[in-house]
Amino acid sequence: MRNFISDPCHKFVSSLCLFVLLPLVAEAQVVTFVDLNPPGNYRSEAFATTGIQQVGIVDNHAAVWSGTAGSFVDINPGGVYIESYLYATTGGQQVGYASNAGIDNAGVWSGTAESFVNLHPAGAFYSYGLATTGSQQAGIAAFGNTHHAGIWSGTAESFVDLHPPGADESEVYSTTGSQQSGSIVIGGTFHAGIWSGTAGSFVDLHPAGASSSLAYSTVGSQQAGRAIFGDGVNANSHAGVWSGTPESFVDLHPSGASRSWATATTGNQQAGRAIIGDVVHAGIWFGSAESFVDLHTSLGDDYRNSRAEGIWTDGSTVLVIGSGYYQPDFVTHALLWTITIPEPSSASLILLGLAGIGVLRRRLK
Q: What predicted TM-score, i.e. pTM, was given to this entire model?
């Protein structure tokens, strides 16, 4: 499996709901997390969430959850498909790929293994579905040794090649239906950009002074990703957001981090990760570097590294999906964080209640 973007808890702990109070943008927030790794399975990762559904992999099989480890459903198509991944979901439709005799084929599902539809375009060597709106899917198809960004409308024959003239390679990671975000390679350099459904519509978002950039997510009004400043050993990845132009780039790099990535956005909140010390920390932002909230601190000492891949919100609750390295088992576990933003009138009561929970947690250790 190619790496595009970069790159209830285990047993007894799964029965605990861990609460952490984090300072954030003028009001208190409560963070809880659930370890989605199903009992008896070796490894899991999750990449996207809606309000009710999460998708990813369990032991290299396409996986769907509904908020708990026990809700896991294996939707690997079976037959000739020995491996499958899910990267995005609308709740009713999931997108990713399934591997047929070692060749990865983009595809869509409707919640079951039997519903798999192969999107692999004619003439492509391999392909990946990375985003969906339900009616439009977006991703990558490789022709020869070259990645081409593309979109589908539910069938292999509907593939539209978004590869811009003059680009060495191109990749789409996200779509709203009317706008797609991703990157192109020009002269060996990645340039973040957006499309409006055609190859000729590409808009280069590459910020001034950056040596490389990628836009991993879009909601139309805002794009999220990263820009790399410097070269060689001095290169540093900075999380950032755009509003449709190179000049609109806002650097989200948190103070004290050596590198950072923003992998998803709702328009108001961004999810991603930052390397602090030598540990990868999942986190969220609220539009500025100073607003970074470290989600890794909610996990406790059993988790060595963590990353946030996807985000969803209804305005008062934020769900963040990702994964963390679970040290007792020496494997990666899919994780789901819930961030509750209380009403200002409720914040003081929650502060008092969580003070007692903090004492209880220390005793449990």
A: 0.87
